[in-house]
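Risk mitigation, structural track. In case the binding assays with iron/sulfur cluster fail to produce interpretable data, a predicted complex structure has been prepared as a fallback.
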Amino acid sequence: MDFTKLKEKLEKKGYAVREFQTAEEATAALKHEIRGETVGIGGSETVNQMKLFEALSPENEVWWHNKKPENRSVEETKRAANAANIYISSVNGISENGELVNIDFSGNRVAATDYGPKKVIFVIGENKVAPTLERAVWRARNVAAPQNARRLKRKTPCAGKADHCYDCQSPERICRILNIFLTKPAGCEYEIILIHEALGF
Ligand code: SF4
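Fallback model:
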């Protein structure tokens, strides 16, 4: 995929943007640059595939509830992640116009990306790009969320086939918040890292 136009749109909206051919290259760059920081990570299969936790942990204090310390609860780990200087997440969809879409369960991820850290880094594989905001929202709801429900083994109607959203009211429904960045929020530094690979859901 050619990121040229998307990169231009994102830069016009105020984001710093870089692109990498592979996840491995992106991870190596972030490992080289981020040192001596507190880093929080939101629930993200992209981050998992990039092995960012493993890459950043030796030189930073990294908080991620998927790799929580034994002496901390998931909730404590999420709160520590949200208090970090740098927060790393992916998105569930991005439009060709540069709007970012995320769906969340407890809100820790969207809260941290909306406000709090000094810097937010979004790592985004090319599979997340949709032609319009409407299609990016559709993707988040009908592709990313069902696949995440299946990964998390939730008792929801979508988790079996992960084929589309059934707009369930299951107690285990993972889609509770829909967060859209129309443009870069004020008051925080944002960097978007575009990667020429399919990553996450
Ligand atoms: S609303 Fe329910 S059915 Fe739809 S994706 Fe979310 S968990 Fe699955």
